[in-house]
Amino acid sequence: MATVDLSAPRGLRQRVSIVHWGIASREALAGYLFTVPALVGLLGFTALPIIASLVLIFLNYDLLTPPTWASESNIGRLFGDARLLVVYRNTVQLVVGATFLNNVLGLLLAVGLNRSMPWILRYLLRTSIFFPVLTTTASLAVVWRYLLTQDRGVVNFLLGQIGMDPVPWLSSSRWALISAMIYDVWKSCGFLMVIYLAGLQGIPAVYYEAARIDGAGRFQQFRNVTLPLISPTAFFAIVISLIGAFQIFDNVWVLTSGGPGDASRTIAMYIYEKAFRGFEMGYASAVSFTLFMVLISLTLLQFWVARRWVHYE
Amino acid sequence: MAATLSNNGESAPAGRRAGHSPWYYLRESVLWVLLVGIALIEIAPLTWMFSTSLRDPKNSFDLPPDFWPTAFHWQNYLTVITSPDIQFLLFFWNSLKIALIVTGAQLLTCSMAGFAFGRLQFKGRDFLFGLFLASLMVPATVTLIPSFILIKEMELINTHWALILPSITSAFGVFLLRQHFKSLPEELINAAKIDGATYFRIYWQILLPLTGPALSALGIFTFLGSWNNFVGPLLFLRDWDLYTFPIAIATLRGYMGSGNQSEVLAGIMISIFPILVFFLFAQRWIVQGASITGVKG
Fold first, then answer.
1. Interface subset of B 102-131, CB within 8 angstroms of A
2. Chain A residues with beta carbon closer than 8 angstroms to that of B286
3. Is the pLDDT of residue A12 over 70?
């Protein structure tokens, strides 16, 4: 509007300002109408559920009989729940391991791919590494379940070829979580590679030229140019990896069903089972609220840390 | 972005001209071994799956494993498709139908809201947009239980609406498209306004065609998200004939027991085949989309 006002002759400017209110309210009406569909979805399936889950924490509800106020506090129960501790320990181990491996591999692969090579080679490498990202987590977990079978599984067969003993990948509490981690890294490191690749290609070549003129070697270039300039990308990549890994469900559900015992049960599985197997909606909501707090604080912590070590251009 | 992705933009200078130290060659070979080794590890389970899906079922567990087809027992595919108990084509149709509806709905609702937030002035705009931003931080796992209760109260359990309704919009999509609408030149809109175009025309005919890359990125990932969704069908669907691929396959494995690996793998091949074809043809846009949605986040 401002540009019209300034460029118009005096008389027109007067008219424009007269109809201005009408235009503004029409624009506002359009604004509300355009926002309504998304807003309905947001309020119905995010805002309302959040509020409802806050209320649910104080209720006992089994889906069949009407909810009643919880006499024993669901939040209090959290502290006495030994399984919750086990499940959180599993989840944190899985999250830390998977996030670390995915990001280190993703960055290394991106650095490896971001150099001169025949385009067909680049195409093949990128296609192979990225394609698993697009496949269905639950279905490919079925494939990995076959691959990791102890007796006639492919992985143990290959290990046998190089003289190693078969590993009880899915049936031992020592390996079940590691198997889930391996599967997650197989499934997701290509995604991080693509993100890091885009980050690397966003670094202007002049910085490398300047570094070379100053006599920096390849490693020094990586250390002093690539790393600082890739850090916004890395910050983003690490946050989404953490948030994704904390919610791992399909992976372990199919691969190990959380077992043996609770050895590979994740927090998302635990919430699901408390709610839809045990029908303890109130307590399951209390557990999912703890996950919510963890994820929110991680995000805020990451933003705070980012201010200190991320170099924006 | 696509151009820089496909032709290495020379941002990492390859091979300095003279006098490489031994360290240089060591580093280079480590990177190459890593790159090729990981590419092989990433692709091997898929070629193994394909090879084994073509084995005669009675040999399906035989070792050594094949990473390249040695038998061509295509009957496995036919068996899965024509099995009277498992209506595989129906699963395909269910998955496709839900994914298409969800994708269409999200592209529409997200681009409309993105247009309003990025381009229109109205009271409470920043507050409303703030709501969307805040809900980006709400993980799906947290809203699972109340969403289930809501769907149950609406008596939509065991219908496809239970999978469609919660996904008609996404805060991330609104955010992504708002950024793109905001980046379009102001002159376009002013010119259209002077010509007397309605806001709907400005949105639909002038600006929407210009958000192509962001729109296709959102479309691709929404489609994939829906196609691959496992928790939703697990939670909401009861009847076989409503099942989508992921839940059908996880159930199929139990249903067929451990006896028939080849046929289960043939089923999985069928379910990821559309994605594979789509990926081979649209790889550029998909990879570009992953990096757009990634870097702009």
1. 108-110, 112-113, 115-117, 120-123, 125, 128, 131
2. 134
3. no
Cβ proximity of A154 and A147 under 8 Å: yes
Task: Inform me whether the C-beta atom of residue B18 falls under 8 Å from chain A C-beta atoms.
Answer: no
- Asked whether residue A61 is domain-assigned, the answer is no
Q: What is the pLDDT of residue A297?
A: 86
Q: Are residues A161 and A224 in the same domain?
A: yes
- As a whole number of Å, the CA-based R_g of chain B is 24
Which of the two residues, A16 and B94, has the higher pLDDT score? B94
Set of chain B residues whose Cβ sits within 8 Å of the Cβ of A203? 11
Tally the domains of chain A.
2
**Long-range contacts of the stretch B279-287 (C-beta < 8 A, 24+):** B279/A127, B279/A131, B279/A134, B280/A127, B282/B220, B283/A127, B284/B2, B284/B5, B284/B6, B285/B2, B285/B213, B285/B216, B285/B217, B285/B220, B286/A134, B286/B220, B287/A126, B287/A130, B287/A194, B287/B5
**A52 in any annotated domain:** yes
Inspect the interface and report whether the beta carbons of A276 and B235 lie closer than 8 Å. Answer: yes
Residues in B closer than 8 angstroms to A29, CB to CB, are 122
Per CB-CB distance under 8 Å, the chain B contacts of A236 are: 294-295, 297
Whether the per-residue pLDDT at A89 is higher than 90: the answer is yes
Shortest CA gap B22–chain A (Å) = 13
Q: Domain check: are A143 and A197 in the same one? A: yes
Give, in order, the Cα–Cα distances in Å from A224 to each of A42, A211, A228: 43, 8, 6
Query: Are residues A46 and A95 located together in one domain of the fold?
Result: no
A143/B268 touch (CB, cutoff 8 Å), yes or no = yes
Q: What's the whole-number average pLDDT of chain A?
A: 84
> Is A69 inside any structural domain?
no
Distance CA A285, CA A181 (A): 26
Flag whether pLDDT at A183 surpasses 90.
yes
A249, B231 in Cβ contact below 8 A? yes
| Statement to judge: residues A248 and A202 lie in one domain | yes
Structural contact between residues B237 and B220, judged by C-beta atoms closer than 8 angstroms: no
What structural domains does chain B harbor? 23-73 (no CATH), 84-295 (1.10.3720.10)
Q: Mind listing the pLDDT tens digit for each residue in A188-239?
A: 999 999 888 888 888 888 888 888 888 888 778 888 888 888 887 888 888 8
What is the extent of the structural domain holding A300? 74-309
- Both A110 and A249 in a single domain? yes
pTM of the model: 0.84
The reply to whether A48 falls in a domain is: yes
The answer on A169 and A36 residing in a single domain is no
For A134, the closest of B12, B32, B275 (CB atoms) is B275
Whether A123 and A265 share a structural domain: yes
pLDDT tens-digit series, residues B224-280: 889 889 999 999 998 888 999 888 888 876 665 545 778 888 888 988 888 888 888
| Average pLDDT taken over every residue of chain B | 81
